[in-house]
Amino acid sequence: MIKYILGSRVRALVIVISASMAIFALTGQSVFASPEMLAAGLMLPFVVGDTSDTGGLTQLLKDQGHAFEEFKSANDARLKAIEEKGYAPADIVEKVDHINAELSKLTKDINEIAKKSNRPQTSTETKGLTPDQMEYKTAFQKFIRKGDANGLSELERKAFQRGSDVDGGYLIHPEMETEIDRVASTVSNMRMLADVRTIGKTSLQFRVKKSGLAARWVGENESGGETTGAQYAQIEIYAEEMEIEPWAYNTALEDADFDIEADVVDEAGIGFGEAEGAGFITGTGVKQPNGILNYTKAANANYAWGKVGFITSGASGAFASSNPGDKVIDLIHSLKSTYRVGATLMMADTTLGSLRQIKDGAGSFYLFQPDATGEFSGFVLGVPVVIDDNMPVMEANSYSIAYANFNRAYRIVDRRGIALIRDNITTKGTTKFNFRKRVGGGIKNFEAIKLMKFA
User: Fold this and answer.
1) Which residues of the chain carry a pLDDT beneath 70?
2) CB-CB contact of 106 with 66 (8 Å)
3) Is the Cβ–Cβ distance between 256 and 119 less than 8 Å?
4) Residues in Cβ contact with 279 at an 8 Å cutoff, skipping those fewer than 6 apart
5) Which InterPro entries does its entry note (predicted)?
6) Distance of CA 263 to CAs 160, 171, 267, 344, 420, Å?
7) How far apart are CA 302 and CA 300, in angstroms?
8) Number of CB atoms found within 10 A of residue 286's CB
């Protein structure tokens, strides 16, 4: 996804337009923006800001708009046939599926280009580093390329005032650590959306207010008293250990024009991001983060603190056959209004493919609208959609859609310091770089997240 390519006014305009279209349609007024309108009105700022058109992103966005128009036409024909005949001819169903698959592919291509353009390279700037850290950085780069660790332990103590957490390894310099985290954030959607904190110990303990102070009305000359006290919950998130081991040919390390640091940063960042992304969704909490799907779940009517509330879809492994959009609306309104500002829908690509076919109860508009900026995978009733294939596919009793204000719902903790062990012995002709990182995650506010259960 592209982060902050457009100014805040333009991004706000996209959300307002999508939300307005949904509101007008719900009140019976037909309002729809064509791809040409979207391209002319919303894509212009992007074209101006990115005259190089990296990877043909502008054309992909236009193709997405045209494909969605074709999809709507074909799907309308499918729905009409079902209404009139009780079934849709195979050729129409095949056409809808084909265009839907093409839309999914276009969305993936757009997101990939956006991620690549947003993925940083290792910076050579030294701004913010202390003289000791600068000296350590220079020595560390020599250690990566040549394995020369002469004096590195002493420099590490000077730079960090402490030793490495891993025997036989060394802490990477702060700039390199920042770059790895930045690369990981372009890979893991949860890391991009959640509340991320850096800690200097094994775990982070904090208290969350479960309920606020209750005020009461007091008449003239009436005596006051204590109000109901706020309730707090204590939460602790542990930083678990993970590792990744990119490698390079020794001949490459000998080439002065090969930026080995940038290469291993990119590999480590991608690897950490992919592993974390899965952990933040489905992690068991044992030697890994507590994923959002690992908590006790309860029907939203019976929701209680410590559980994640859910809304049922109305059908086993599918959206309801009659008025399926009503359940999506129920999901959106299951979240308190205070959390809906900044909330996001998260689901797998195949789930979005099914959701894309749903219209409102009157059949006047589609719940889904494509995003003409490339920032999100689209909007559902004005709510941004983020694709994360770590979310389960739709099947009986699966929790395949999460709707949350992730920044307020989920906290990620990073243990300060990533350690590196250099190994040029195990495999002849290559050097392995074993990175060790400690990271954890867990829900911090159970009110700020809801799920859809396909049941």
Assistant:
1) 1-55, 112, 114-128, 161-168, 211-214, 224-230, 256
2) no
3) no
4) 288, 289, 291, 441
5) Phage_capsid, Phage_capsid-like_C
6) 25, 18, 6, 33, 14
7) 5
8) 8
Domain spanning 125-211+230-348+388-455: CATH superfamily: Major capsid protein gp5 (3.30.2400.10)
The Cα 21–Cα 4 span in angstroms is 24
Q: Which helix (H) or strand (E) holds 146?
A: helix 131-146
Cα separation, 335 vs 333, in Å, equals 5
Sign of the C-alpha dihedral computed for residues 441, 445, 448 and 451 taken in this order = positive
Residue 139, burial from CB neighbour count under 10 angstroms (0-12, 13-18, 19+): buried
Contact criterion met (CB below 8 Å) for 224 and 218: yes
Q: Per-domain residue ranges for the chain?
A: 1-118, 125-211+230-348+388-455
The answer to whether 317 and 305 have CB atoms below 8 angstroms apart is no
* pLDDT tens per residue across span 116-168: 665 555 444 555 678 888 888 888 888 888 888 888 888 887 777 654 455 55
- Residues 6 or more apart whose CB falls under 8 angstroms from that of 422 comprise 143, 144, 147, 431, 432, 433, 434
Give the whole-angstrom CA distance, residue 359 versus residue 1. 26
Q: Which helix (H) or strand (E) holds 79?
A: helix 57-85
Q: State CA 375 to chain mean position distance.
A: 12
The H-assigned helical ranges of 223-360 are 250-254, 260-282, 325-334, 337-340, 349-355
